[in-house]
Design brief:
The chain contains 3 helices and 2 strands. α1 crosses α3. The chain is mainly α. Helices cover about 55% and strands about 10% of the residues.
Amino acid sequence: MTVAEIIRRAIALSEPDGEITFEELNGLFGPGRPPEDVEDVFIALRDAGIRLVEQRS
């Protein structure tokens, strides 16, 4: 899965409350994902106003 696909899916998972859990996000990353890709996803989610949370509120 490309970084863009991970970002799209993460945004979809965050709806409607604007939150995604670390567990949900980790499920989108395949094994061996380079740290740069992970950082790009974190930045994109932050820029989109999506919060990373331990568990949903």
